[in-house]
Amino acid sequence: MSNDPIHTFLMEAHRICVEAQFVVDSLPNADLPAVERSAHQLGAIRQIISVLEDESMTDAARQESFNFVQRLLDPLEDFIANPPPPASTFLATESSGRPGRPKYKLSISRAQQLHDLGNSYEEIAKAMGTTRMTLHRHFMYEGIPTARRAFTEIDDDDLDEVVAEISLAHPFVGSVIVSGHLEARGIHLPRLRVQDSLRRVDELGVLVRWAGIIKRRVYKVRGSNALWHHDANEKLRPWGFYVHGCIDGYSRLIVYLAVRANKRKATVSELFLGAVAQFGWPSRGRGDFGTENNEVERLLIEHWGVLHRAYLRGRSRHNVRIERLWRDVRKDSLETFRQIFDYLEKNGLLDMENPIHSACLYLVFHRRIQASLDRTRDAWNHHRLRTEHDKTPVALFELSREAAITRGYWTGDPGDAVGVVDDLYGYDGQAPAPPSDVTANEPLQRMEQPMGTEAERAGGILVNGDEELEAARELLGDFDCDRDDENWGIEVYCEAVVRMTSVLASL
């Protein structure tokens, strides 16, 4: 670490300028205290630069630094001098029939929903463009209590039964994700009770998971839908399953998580547009150079325009949010099926070179995997984030969404300014690197997808073709591939192979 005071000052000034740039790019939707703080710090830096005397800094360099700080300071000072109207300006009002100002129209049911998600009344009032006192007064008018949602009444035996069921279906997850599974089922409990229950039903697993805890890092984008990260996970690709995921960078909300038989660009764009229909258009998307992302790139550029930098491509290590999600998805869901398929192969029950085995495996397990992913998605979206004051992804997303709706820019928010959206936008340089097996063979430039089933198979786009799977379904007839055999689907798979082999032999 340098002892040179000039070097120390310049390093600190750089840090402050980076923070100030983020505030400037958030205008006019930045918080006034944040604007005032940045303006005060920049003013101090400007004053120091104007009197700075150092042989290593030329007059031209000093003037350039001064001008740079001034360019950051100007929009902040203008915002302070001419602040936007208060958020309450955008609120609808209604007459109470009595003298005085009209009453604000607030959705108390929406406020209660946001509160039950874990947001404070102070945060909800701010997002809705009013004050906590006004919000409480509306609750009082409606006769609705403002107490936080009560914990679910459930005894230890019943809780252990539910936790054991979750732990059996998702054997590699810890108490935070188990809490998310419980919340998704409507069971609201203190973290300590969940930890105690998990320890009772799965003590060895708790010890293993504690050894694998990693430190979280800081990440910043403007708000919900500022940047979506998406990717295809290929841990189950050797067996014909491609898992597609997309996460909102700000809130960490999973907007889609689905298993498919391929990673065609049409498949990815269909999932993406389904998420857009539910959550709205993201300002930007980030993905790797995989050909499956080409259509999503085209859709975003078509929606926002070429100059917006609506789609960012880079290495997996630049796509921090989705890579971090895959770590938990693998533990919560995919690892279980990887071990099942590995078991089938080691015991001579599965040969992926045999088209009967390959097709039956997909038909029997793809809905089972999707059901597991659905549970994982719900648990993730309801698990509490330590770095976000124990808020859940759905709470963060909905609170940010409510604030944007109140201020009138939710459906058309262009997000952060184009000037700061470089190749590393949405990237945390201090975050852990993805596993080497993820980065080893990833493409380093944009390419087009191959056409035709055999070319797609050779290019790793699919294992089973659409026509092959459709033919397999017809051969199985009324065979119930989704039957619960209480053995993870292993017996159903074996029966499907026997039946299809028999049908083909009789033709």
UniProtKB/TrEMBL annotation:
Keyword check for RNA-binding: yes
Protein name per UniProt: Integrase catalytic domain-containing protein
Top-rank lineage group of the source organism: Eukaryota
A molecular function GO annotation: RNA binding
UniProt lineage: Eukaryota, Fungi, Dikarya, Basidiomycota, Agaricomycotina
Occurrences of domain Integrase catalytic (ranges): 219-401
Organism: Mycena venus
Biological-process GO terms, alphabetical: DNA integration
Entries under PANTHER family matching the protein: CLR5 DOMAIN-CONTAINING PROTEIN-RELATED (PTHR46791:SF5), EXPRESSED PROTEIN (PTHR46791)
Keywords: RNA-binding
Any one annotated GO CC term: nucleus
